[in-house]
Amino acid sequence: MAIEEFELGLARLPAIVWTPTKYKPSQMAEFISLIQNHNFKISKAAVKAQIEPKSAYKYHNEWRANGGTVLPGYKLAYEVKLKGNNIKLTENHSQFIANYV
Length: 101
Hints:
The chain is mainly alpha-helical and about 100 residues long.
């Protein structure tokens, strides 16, 4: 199932980044959709979405903690830290290196 097939509400989602977890984004979307739209209990929604019940409770708490705007397993794009080797050098960096040498 594609993530677009699930109705998660009409709220516009912020820019988000998927962080590696054991479960696919479609499973997370299905899990939250079953709880919100179909009034499933957490344990039954977990079984139907093929998520371990213990993990389901953790993801449900994560979902509630961020106000129901970011799917569990995602982080807001501005919360993701860039790796140090991906930062581009600026003109100030180049001048410093030139002066140092």
